[in-house]
UniProtKB/TrEMBL annotation:
PROSITE patterns, A to Z: L27, PDZ, SH3
Species: Pelusios castaneus
Superkingdom: Eukaryota
Annotated L27 domain residues: 6-60, 61-118
Domain PDZ: 137-218
Family membership noted in the UniProt record: Belongs to the MAGUK family.
UniProt entry tagged with the keyword Transit peptide: no
Keywords of this entry: Cell junction, Membrane, Repeat, SH3 domain
InterPro entries: L27_C, L27_dom, L27_dom_sf, MAGUK, MPP3_SH3, PDZ, PDZ_sf, SH3-like_dom_sf
Pfam families: L27, PDZ
Name of this chain's protein: Membrane palmitoylated protein 3
């Protein structure tokens, strides 16, 4: 069997493993599977990219400049204020393209090692308002996706409470927000006297990062295990047409015969589910089996009563 040297890369190792696979009558399927995996071009390309990055990392390169984007802006401004020849005009057009500008911004981010979000300092008046041990400052980083949580107002205290955490959403992935937590502030804005719709609007408009001031629940609920329950839909469902759903934006639309994976049945009325094969990993709300059956029975009853009122009795 050939011997690999210390300088051999991962893609050389992969090629060697592929060449050493021999037919085995007792493990035909396993050997065929390994051969297909090792022969996949995308895997070979991935290994080569990995080696290039490792080689680049070992060189420990240092950036020549930490503000290339600012330098490009200065050059553009200089070229725009003076007569230019053909070469300078071409340089001006090149520096003005959005793709190159974006690349320079990325270069500066890497050069300055400004990768992770910076946590905000604790408010100065934190001790005046709350007990130090009872307040939690949470900062979540999200894209254009929703936060993945619904809220409600406590009827007795008026506090804004986290009512539901959607599986796969930003709040669920963070592991820092739990059902029952009391929400005090969103990005420094107090929410005590705001309507839930206004709070949802603030949450939806927050992009990049969002800072929450939370009073944790007295007893945080244990994270539910995936139920791994799969169901085939027997009806079509559009949450935008359902007036009973607590949050239409959190609903999961589906068609008849779609396969759904139910990931949470904690709420007896509204389950959380995902469409099998969907690239969206966030779960959505669907009516539970019991709730949907009750609605159908009620509709049948109402329909029967209305029908009986229109039928005249024989004389």
């Amino acid at each position: 069997m050939p011997v690999l040297s210390e300088d051999s890369g991962l893609h050389e190792t992969l090629a060697l493993l592929t060449s050493q696979l021999r037919p085995d009558s007792n493990h035909k399927e396993e050997m065929g599977f390994l051969r297909d995996v090792f022969s996949e071009k995308s895997l070979s390309y991935l290994m080569k990219i990995h080696e290039k990055l490792r080689h680049y990392e070992r060189q420990s390169p240092t950036p020549v400049l930490h503000s290339a984007a600012a330098l490009a802006e200065d050059v553009i401004e200089e070229l725009q204020t003076t007569p230019v020849n053909n070469e300078e005009k071409e340089l001006l057009q090149l520096l003005s393209t959005p793709h190159l500008r974006a690349m320079l911004v990325v270069h500066d981010t890497v050069a300055q090692k400004n990768f992770d979000p910076v946590l905000p300092p604790l408010p100065d008046n934190l001790d005046d308002d709350f007990d130090e041990e009872s307040v939690k400052i949470v900062r979540l980083v999200k894209n254009k996706e929703p936060l993945g949580a619904t809220i409600r107002r406590d009827e007795h205290t008026g506090a804004v409470i986290v009512a539901r955490i959607m599986r796969g959403g930003a709040a669920d992935r963070s592991g820092l927000v739990h059902v029952g937590d009391e929400l005090k502030e969103v990005n420094g804005i107090a929410v005590l006297h705001k309507r839930p719709e206004e709070i949802s609007q603030i949450l939806a408009q927050s992009q990049g990062s969002i800072t929450l001031k939370i009073i944790p629940a007295i007893k945080e609920e244990d994270r539910l295990k995936d139920s791994k329950v799969f169901m085939r839909a027997l009806f079509c469902y559009n949450p935008k047409e359902d007036k009973a759903i607590p949050c239409q934006e959190a609903g999961l639309p589906f068609k008849r015969r779609h396969i759904l994976e139910v990931v949470s049945q904690d709420d007896p009325t509204w389950w959380q589910a995902k469409r099998v094969g969907d690239t969206n990993l966030r779960a959505g709300l669907i009516p539970s089996k019991q709730f949907q059956e009750r609605r159908l029975n009620y509709r049948r009853t109402i329909g029967t009563l209305q029908y009986s009122k229109t039928v005249k009795k024989p004389l």
